Structures are given as structure tokens and as C-alpha cells.
Amino acid sequence: MLDGYAALAPVYDRLNRDVDYAAWAAFVTENFRRFSALPGEPSLLLDLGCGTGSMTLALAEEGYDMTGLDLSEEMLSEADSRAREAGKNILFLQGDMTDFELYGTVDGIVCCLDGINHLTDRESLRACFFMVSRYLNPGGLFLFDVNTPYKFKTQYADNDYLLEEDGAVCCWSNRLNKKGDICDFILTVFEEQPDGLYKRTDGITRERCWGRKALQNAAKEAGLEVLTVTDSFDFTEPAEDAMRWYFTCRKQ
Fold this sequence. Notes:
The chain has two domains: 2-147 and 210-251, 3-Layer(aba) Sandwich (Rossmann fold), CATH 3.40.50.150; 151-207, N-terminal domain of TfIIb (Single Sheet). The protein has eight helices and twelve strands. The protein has helices spanning 4-8, 12-15, 21-35, 54-61, 73-85, 122-135, 149-156, 212-221; strands spanning 2-3, 44-48, 65-70, 91-94, 106-111, 136-147, 160-165, 168-176, 182-192, 198-208, 224-230, 244-251. The strands form two sheets. A seven-stranded mixed beta sheet has the order 4-3-2-5-6-12-11, with helices on both faces. The longest helix is centred in the first third of the chain and has 15 residues, at 21-35. It starts with a strand and ends with a strand.
């Protein structure tokens, strides 16, 4: 069985059309306006766990010089093709979030759409945050989001879902462990081919539920100050039933 993102890569963007990447990119820019302690305007950004590059492209449209990094070769292939079609000169690198190399430091790092949830043990979380701190310029920002414990317990749990959009079907079955902190996503993807037949691909991926305290402690240990945690793009305090937390951290 493939990694889940290898299976999803050809249809990922079609199944996630409800994500407002432009609004998310504007939120990133507003964070820099409010919280950056850089000596000048931010320029170089890294999209960590960039997937098919939707966020990378949205940030490029905001005027940032972008680099995208992801472990999945299939996702990176989609991202590179999209960037070329859009006429954007973006460097995409294949690498692990917990152990990667860049050509230099950057002004900001983003990790969107629950990339941090894919770090399923404390050693991986710690390693990722230390890598972020290593390559982030002092005063620069690290912005990431996670799926909340509430979402794991209510929306994920042991529920099954069927997603369908323009010749793409994804059967998504969740398996939450007894402790409620690890969820496996068992995926079966059907993609329509030019001859009208459908190609089936199976994959599996895993996420871990992280509490706010664990994330704040990991950030602090890596020299990253947590400035805000919100559940939306308007900087309000998270509600108890929030599905997603957005963290803004600054390198000390």
C-alpha cells in the first residue's frame, strides 16, 4: 500500500477546492506586518510540507520568493508542474521535515494544512522545530496549524467519508486508537482516465493529535516564542469546539 499522499497527489487539488489559499496567504502577510522583528521586509519564505504547491503559489502571488519542501515525490511533481504553468520560478526540494538542508536562511517558514500533525512522536516534533529554528533568521516567523483534539474526537474518530469531485473519488476511512491521539487514514482513490475507466490507488497516512502545551513547549525549547494561537484568520482566541489552531511563532 502506498503512502497516502502518493495516492492522493493526482487528485488532491480537486478534492480540496474549498480551501481559500489566497485568504490564508493574506493571513501570513498580516502576521508579518504585526509580529515580524526582521530588520527589513520579509522576502524569502519556505513552505514546509508544501504538497502540490497551492500555498506556495499563493504566497508567491503575495510577492515572496518561495521555496517548497516535501517528502512526497508525487506531490512535488504536481507542485513543479503547477508552478511552471503559472510562470513562477519556485525551487522545490524533496526532504523530510525533521532533517532537511537549505541553501541559506529564510525570513519565514510556513507549514499549512496540518503538516505538523504528521509528526507522530515527540522526537520528530522536536527535530522539526529545531530545523525550523536553524534556518529561520532572527526575528523571522514560523507559522503552522494543527488539527485540534476536538476534531480528532468528533470529526475523525472512526468515521468514514466519501469525497467526489470532477472525475476523482476518495473513500476515506478513519481508525482512531484507544488513547485518542493517533488516527490512521485508510484511503482508496479512484481517478477517471481518458478512456472513461477509473484507476484505483490505495494508500494510508497517519496523524497525531498534539495539545497546545506540548506544541508551546517544543517551540520554546527550539528558541521559538509562541506569540498567538487562533482558530481563524481574524486573530480571535480559539473556541472550545475549534477544528484547527493557527500558531504564530517568532525566532528569538
